[in-house]
Amino acid sequence: MEFSYSREQQMVKAMLKKFAETEIAPISEEIDAEAKYPYETIAHLGNLGVMGMPFPKEYGGAGSDYLTYIMAVEELSKVDASHGVIVQTHNALCCWPIFTYGTEEQKQKYLPKLLSGEHLGAFGLTEPNAGTDAAMQQTTAKDMGDHWLLNGSKIFISGGGIADVYVVMAMTDKSKGNKGISSFIVEKGMPGFSRGKKENKMGIRGSIAAELVFEDCAVPKENLLGGLGKGFKVAMSSLDVGRLGIAAQALGIAQGAFDQTVEYMKQRRQFGRSLDKFQALAFEMANMKTRIDGSRFLLYNAANCRDRGLSSTVEAAQAKLSCSETASYVVDKAVQFHGGYGYIKDYPVERMYRDQKITEIYEGTSEVMKMVISGSIFK
Amino acid sequence: MKIAVCVKQVPDTNEIRINPETGTLIRDGVPSILNNDDANALEQALQVKDAQPDTEVIVVTMGPPQAKEMLQECLAMGADDAILLSDRALGGSDTWATSNALAAGLKKAGPFDLIFAGRQAIDGDTAQVGPQIAEKMGLAQVTYVKAFELDGAFATVKRALEDGYETLRVKLPCVLTAIKELNTPRYMSVPGILKAAKADIKVWSADDIGVDKTTVGLKASPTNVFRSFTPRPKGKGVSVEGDTPKEQAANLLADLRAKHII
Amino acid sequence: MANFEEYKNIWVYTEQRGGRLMPVALELLGEGYRLSRERGEGAKVCAVLVGSEIGYLAEELYAYGADMVYQMDHPLLKNYTTDGYTKVMTDAIKAYKPEIVLFGATHIGRDLAPRIAARLDTGLTADCTRLDINTGNYMKYLTDYTTASSSGLEANDGNKGLKQTRPAFGGNLMATIVTPNTRPQMATVRPGVMEKRERETGASGQLVKVKVELCQSDIQVEVLDVVKEAKELVSLTDADIICSGGRGLGNAEGFELIRRFADKVGGVVGASRAAVDSGWIDQSHQVGQTGTTVKPKIYFACGISGAIQHLAGMQTSDIIVAINKDPEAPMMQLADYAICGDLKKVIPELIQQWDEEEQQ
Q1: What percent of chain C has pLDDT above 90?
Q2: Which 17-36 residues of chain A touch chain C by CB within 8 A?
Q3: Average pLDDT of span A46-72
């Protein structure tokens, strides 16, 4: 076992740290306050190869391994979790299923523009009555002979209305339950496809979440992804990959809030000494650091398993559970240690506190993670 | 077109701290970075390459083996090749000796149509190596370049002055030193990083570049460090004396001037 | 090794642009004068004047201490060019063999001096802030102003080499450089550091008109134009001096005073969040956690108590001057210079006396 960063990982981390501090930190308050999608910085990240990191060069990807990609999401999320989730959703939930399940024609058609960041990708699974219980899909796709006809709606879709390419699940055979779900590649602008309500979220406000509406939306026959009835598998395996990214996002938030608190504690003086001189607080910081570093090992191990082609479903669930719960604990203490200043928007920990919560919910709630992990214990 | 960019690995001086007890520099854990002005020099070379894709950009540095890391970063930004001049015989060189070594390395790697360098390095702040390379290679130089335009066999550049600038036209080949106003250096790209991490960086010794060993290294350097020390650490603040605002202002300004702060 | 006996006198490159002497030229004459007397043995301070039809400046150089003026006058020297100036200076140094040559560390001085030093194969020390010849004086400097020990040095060692002291590592480290084996000893000197002598009207000296050999083909760079630019409004991040106002200004008009102050000292206007929130000044001026983080050479905090959000954005400034009525305000505790008083009275005094100081 080796526990050290490779030279390429060091450089990726250094590059994104600088990018996040220089390009993203100055706008993070504004995109949060105005729920503004950061088009410019995302396009810039596309130019740098971040929007197609863990995919082969033959399709226009950067060709990194998954672990290095995870570190990239972590670095971005240290400064701004919205950027973290935008990169993550695009890579793991749109590029990945197309790369993994797509036909050669589909890959040639969609991947180059997605991996360069010219096109943005999104993923449509959740519905008003189908959250954790994905089998409750009500969106339907009807075989019309030469095309599919989609009807229904999806909610809470990250990048909804902004993305150019969507991987969308729909029922092709209701009688078969999960096995009756199929997935489709839907493009922005296809007739009958529109964006519905835009959500007013608590956190990650720079990442737009919106409703997708399909009204007799005609999707070309060849846009079926992964075969008829394979949609549940496409969705679940994508979420498996996505969990690593969300864990990285949570870890980044935790580390970012922790770093902010360290700086604040050195500056802030009360009762004639700086906060870091109060042992009760310093000891709590020791706990925080230990939990962050422990979560990081779980996450890197899970990513490493994926890179080595090993089954990583349980590891990914452990990583997401640990990283998101650690983040919850850390942002809570970070705000607490900032006192009143932690409750106002002058300090980034206020935003981090709000941004963190979603990491315990999306791409599988903590409860689902526990189902996966406990299922592997008592199999 | 073939362009050389002279770069230097420097400690990030923003991160350097002074040990208040011993009065010495704490360099432990201080990251080494590509010198700021050198990044602008590299960016300008890469912009030429963007416009003329058959351009070859080669970064050249002199330093210890660890300087390879910085050269990898230059490759990850888009440079085509990197050369490290590294040899114990070159250690301790002052600017004169450094320029002898770099000029020899550039002659071996060249000929070049353009040689860019940063105006100065943030550790030494001398701004002397660029002009001295130009002298040793017998080339024209323009320092403090804040705008650059290629125009056939000539370059039209703006050279920053304290109170404005001058526009100069210079025939290639020449040596140009960049300042931060010239451009905004690009980031390393992920594909660039993956390539650079595996790149084989040439390491040339003093013998490889055929430099006269009596003109390089500590012993050959015409300048020597006689003493080095830290300025007295900033003491606790003082309350400015004075019975009237006029006296207070006078006392403050007198002290600031005495300490050459203004 | 050069025959050191042949090298005499201290040369000062008295930089002129467009027929006007740069202020640093007179400062260097003052320092050159002092050093020449410290050197003894009849050493003279000599101004070196390069340009086209600039002979009329010699009188001014004598007035500021020059014992001699070497004049190099040629139509091709009208505008500064590296090639032209390097050639005539190198030729003259070879011919007259000065022991020391000083340049102002201006954009031109720092272009020219390294080129000359390389051509002469001698040492050059950049951007010096102190020069000594006498070892005893140097030892006193070390003791009085630095953490360095002067052990191993002997005040009367008779060493007449130039000890050139300069900052490095962004001012975190100082180094004294010597040039033991080659001559001349060359240095560029930071403008604004050395003191010019009091002007002595009617002073005179010896003028040497140096024969200049220069032709157009010696100059490889063509000067298309020289443009004077009003200093661009620098951003808070790049400013050397920041004059910041806070709640203590009382109202928006208070920033008129801060603006005048900033104009006078060549600084940029900053503000605390309290002042911005009160609508006295635009948010783009805000320094602190939510505003800009700054690190100027001097930060004037006027009527700013020093809430932690503000301190977070400016506490690494080199020098902090606080002006406040309340001596207990956190900013007054942090400041290097705390002026307890009414800013509306103190700042006008600073504005007025800033110029007086300049003229001294």
Answers
A1: 69
A2: 29
A3: 96
Q: Is residue C201 left, alpha or beta, with left meaning phi > 0 and alpha meaning psi from -120 to 50?
A: beta
What's the rounded mean pLDDT across residues A135-140? 89
pTM: 0.90
More confident residue, C158 or C301: C301
Q: Does B35 touch chain C (CB under 8 A)?
A: no
Q: If you average pLDDT over residues B8-34, what whole number do you get?
A: 75
Q: Which chains touch B (3 or more CB pairs under 8 A)?
A: A, C
* SS3 (DSSP) at C232: coil
Tell me: do A214 and A288 sit in the same domain.
no
B18-25: average pLDDT: 62
**CB nearest C220 (choices: B18, B124, B140):** B140
Local confidence band at C360 (pLDDT 50, 70, 90 cut-offs):
very low
Residue A1, in any domain of the structure: no
Position B19 scores a pLDDT of 65
pLDDT for residue A192? 95
Nearest chain A residue to B72 by CA: give it.
A11
Pick from A5, A7, A51, A115 the residue to mutate for testing the B interface (most B CBs within 10 Å). A7
Q: Rounded to whole angstroms, how far apart are CA atoms A120 and A163? A: 5
Same domain (yes/no): A213, A286:
no
Q: Are A196 and A214 in contact (CB under 8 A)?
A: no
Nearest beta carbon to residue C308 from set A29, A268, A345: A268
Of B121, B118, A336, the C-alpha closest to C170 is B121
Nearest partner of B66 among B192, B203, B187, judged by Cα: B203
- The domains of chain C are located at 4-218, 241-359
* Angstrom distance (rounded) from CA C327 to CA C325: 6
Q: What is the pLDDT of residue C73?
A: 96
pLDDT of B234 above 70:
no
The mean pLDDT of chain A is: 95
State the amino acid at position A25 in one-letter form.
A
Which B residues in the span 53-92 are in contact with A, Cβ-Cβ below 8 Å?
A: 69, 72-73, 76
Helix axis angle for B190-198 and A7-19, nearest 10°, is: 150
Mark whether A363 is an active-site residue. yes
**Lookup result for tokens 């030469």:** A146
Tell me the ipTM for this assembly. Answer: 0.92
Contacts of A64 in chain B (CB under 8 A): 190, 194
3-state secondary structure of C3: coil
| Dihedral Cα B13, B18, B22, B27, nearest 10 deg | -40
Superfamily of domain C241-359: TPP-binding domain (3.40.50.1220)
Q: CB-based contact (8 Å) between B17 and chain A?
A: no
Q: What is the dihedral of CA B45, B50, B51, B53, to 10 degrees?
A: 100
Look at residues A308, C226, A235, C351 and name the one whose alpha carbon lies nearest to residue B158: C226
Using a CB–CB cutoff of 8 Å, tell me whether B248 touches chain C.
yes
Burial C319-328 (b: 16+ CB within 10 A, else e): bbbbbbeeee
CATH of C4-218, one of 3.40.50.620, 3.20.20.140, 1.10.443.10, 3.40.50.300: 3.40.50.620
Residue B239 is nearest to which of C106, C338, C353, comparing CB atoms? Answer: C338
Chain C: touching chains (3 or more CB pairs < 8 Å): A, B
B81-111: pLDDT as tens digits: 999 999 999 999 999 999 999 999 999 998 9
What CATH number is attached to the domain comprising A223?
2.40.110.10
User: Higher confidence at residue C167 or residue C32?
Assistant: C32
Indicate yes or no: CB of A62 within 8 angstroms of CB of B190.
Answer: yes
Spatial separation of the C-alpha atoms in residues A236 and A231, rounded to whole Å: 9
Residue A23 and residue A146 in one domain: no
- Per-residue pLDDT at C116 exceeds 90: yes
